[in-house]
């Protein structure tokens, strides 16, 4: 399995040839294109690779899908993909992270992973265990939920 630019194993290392995974990946490409536009979708994919959410191989595959959609015939209108977040991510609804949380949902579906498991091991670009000398919160890094909410 290849490592992401973050140095960790990505949550989604490859998009296998299975039909359901490819169909979901195409839906994700449509979502990214419809939400961010073509260049924004490519930037989002680069971010996801840097965060360790996806591998470089997946980024390249998804880049090809997004570029294939940019011809116009296969593009979708915003809102044509179900934009509702699952229960584990609903606290992000209406925030600037909503669209990226939806991408994380696509990543877990394609990778056949539990969203709760991925959330427990996902950081936003920082490795909370890498700095053992810091005066950080002894309960660990803060998560993406609000006060009193759980993931």
TrEMBL record:
<protein>
    <recommendedName>
        <fullName>Archaeal flagella protein FlaD/E domain-containing protein</fullName>
    </recommendedName>
</protein>
<feature type="compositionally biased region" description="Low complexity">
    <location>
        <begin position="141"/>
        <end position="151"/>
    </location>
</feature>
<feature type="domain" description="Archaeal flagella protein FlaD/E">
    <location>
        <begin position="8"/>
        <end position="110"/>
    </location>
</feature>
<dbReference type="GO" id="GO:0097588">
    <property type="term" value="P:archaeal or bacterial-type flagellum-dependent cell motility"/>
</dbReference>
<dbReference type="InterPro" id="IPR006752">
    <property type="entry name" value="Arch_fla_DE"/>
</dbReference>
<dbReference type="Pfam" id="PF04659">
    <property type="entry name" value="Arch_fla_DE"/>
</dbReference>
<feature type="region of interest" description="Disordered">
    <location>
        <begin position="120"/>
        <end position="151"/>
    </location>
</feature>
<feature type="compositionally biased region" description="Acidic residues">
    <location>
        <begin position="128"/>
        <end position="140"/>
    </location>
</feature>
């Amino acid at each position: 399995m290849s490592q992401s630019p973050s140095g960790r194993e990505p949550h989604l290392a490859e998009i296998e040839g299975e039909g359901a995974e490819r169909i979901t990946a195409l839906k994700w490409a449509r979502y990214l294109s419809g939400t961010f536009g073509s260049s924004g979708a490519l930037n989002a994919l680069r971010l996801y690779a840097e965060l360790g959410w996806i591998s470089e191989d997946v980024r390249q595959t998804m880049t090809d899908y997004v570029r294939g959609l940019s011809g116009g015939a296969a593009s979708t209108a915003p809102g044509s993909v179900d934009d509702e977040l699952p229960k584990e991510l609903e606290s992000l609804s209406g925030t600037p992270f909503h669209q990226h949380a939806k991408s994380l949902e696509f990543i877990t579906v394609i990778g056949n992973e539990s969203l709760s498991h991925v959330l427990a091991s996902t950081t936003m670009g920082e490795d909370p265990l890498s700095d053992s000398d810091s005066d950080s919160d002894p309960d660990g890094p803060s998560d993406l939920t609000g006060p009193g909410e759980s993931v």
